[in-house]
Amino acid sequence: MSIFEYNGSAVVAMVGKNCFAIASDRRLGVQLQTIATDFQRIFKIHDHLFIGLSGLATDVQTLYQRLVFRHKLYQLREERDMKPDTFASLVSAILYEKRFGPYLCQPVIAGLGEDNKPFICTMDSIGAKELAKDFVVSGTASESLYGACEAMYKPDMEAEELFETISQALLSSVDRDCLSGWGGHVYVVTPNEVKERILKGRMD
Amino acid sequence: MRCYRHCWNNEARGNWITCWVGEKQNEIWRMRRDGEVFWVLADEFPVGDFVDEFPVGDFVDYGRRKKNCSFLLLLRFYFFPSSLTLQLPSSRKSSNQSRVVNRKMTQSSVDLPPKGGFSFDLCKRNDMLKQKGLKAPGFLKTGTTIVGLIFQDGVILGADTRATEGPIVADKNCEKIHYMAPNIYCCGAGTAADTEAVTDMVSSQLRLHRFQTGRDSRVITALTLLKKHLFSYQGHVSAALVLGGVDITGPHLHTIYPHGSTDTLPFATMGSGSLAAMAVFEAKYKEGLTRDEGIKLVAEAICSGIFNDLGSGSNVDICVITKVRLFIMV
After folding, report:
1. What's phi and psi for B41, nearest 5 deg?
2. What are phi and psi of B249, to 5 degrees?
């Protein structure tokens, strides 16, 4: 069994028209036993920047704490929030630093950059950035997520339609994966507001 | 006092920016990679200071240069070669008045960004997990076909755009031709994080070198910096590169293998699709190709890799470097 399949996870982010959505499943397991059904994988860095972390749960939490720390230092020094592409470079550098003993996580970063242009990217566990214009996926359900997103995605969706699309893609993919599921956690972010919704899915 | 210092890479990429004291006392400026200029408490820095590379987020304290400081640093470089931020020897003796800024971490137990270079603290834990039967993750590889050839006016580099994670295509349009200097570009195959990190790092070293010498970078400089780094990691930094550029001595094309060996060739291919592409080159290459003939040949070689090798696919990126101008076609 791979180390990524120890806890199980599914994270996806999609780009819409001046908005983005990021979603994850909620299960935390120890191999085949479920121990929590409300595990948080998506974290807010600032109002227009979210990071979702899939992989080993302990590294998810440690990495999140480190990144929040670095961002707070940045805010103190620069007196403003970090831009999403800068933050992606920061995460990439932190992960590459541990090239020969990596954090066992794959981050998905989503944010609104200048002029409220949505930015998404994902990385492997040693920080190789992959920028995308449409969607990015990560986690144990990533293969079915690739398929579902390719089929359901269309460019320039508004916030409500984007929410429907990303939720359908997430729920149908986690239904095909034993290690992730138990509902979904979706954030849809527009320049003016952040809507957080919990999805109820199959509880198996 | 504390000052935040970075190291500058190039116009638009990388985590690194530089700052240095200007001609007049109290004039300090620093420029971040998107051109934004920051104010720094300038009163306490003397004229002519030159600072070394530090990774983003580093805290440094200004201090006086200790005797034999450069010797100590050389010692550290040789005994702890895992420092990723190699400091060019010339930067140590930049001017008579230059003083080395001493790095001082805060005394607290908070996790501040360490000096640079790799950190190995999770290795023991990962080994323990491996022993318990949990396999290590795969990294993003760039399956890849990368090629280069020398034509009559310069160098043409080509690459496909597929990035794979095992059997899955992770990125359908990734960039494998990396910027090193305005006249030097480098294609990378192997582990994606390694090729990006190594080319970014050498690119920033070249930029600093250009500031120091006041001249355009030479391809052989980039070659030596890359091979030294790769050799010192004995092939564990898995980056196979095709480096090409035009400098004052003419057009050059080199290949660099992950263990640090290099070749100088008139035409070269690397990556999983290299055999397919090399077949095309061996059949059709001749000296003194014109620009259009060269582009056509490179495109054909990459397409051969795309169709015949499963690890390469998607689109063809081509980069033409000549003495006068630089064209990038995607």
Report:
1. -60, 110
2. -90, 0
Percent of chain A with pLDDT over 70: 100
Asked if B3 is an interface residue toward chain A (Cβ–Cβ < 8 A), one would say: no
Residues B189, B297 within the same domain: yes
Cβ <8 Å between A124 and B137: yes
Q: Is B120 within a domain? A: no
- A95–B193 C-beta distance less than 8 A: yes
Annotated catalytic residue B144: yes
Residue A191 identity (one-letter amino acid)? P
**Tens digits of residue pLDDT in B113-144:** 556 788 888 889 988 888 888 777 777 776 78
Q: How far apart are CA B233 and CA B114, in angstroms?
A: 20
Q: B139, B142, B314: best mutation site toward chain A, by most A Cβ within 10 Å?
A: B139
Judged against a pLDDT cut of 70, whether residue A158 lies above it is answered with yes
A89·B4 Cβ contact <8 A: no
In a domain, B108, yes or no: no
Read off the tokens for A204.
Answer: 């198996």
What digits encode the pLDDT tens for the residues B67-92? 333 433 444 444 444 443 433 333 33
User: Which chain A residues are closer than 8 Å to B106 by Cβ?
Assistant: none
A204 inside domain: no
The residue among B102, B124, B155 that closes a domain is B102
Residue B98 CA, distance from chain mean position: 27
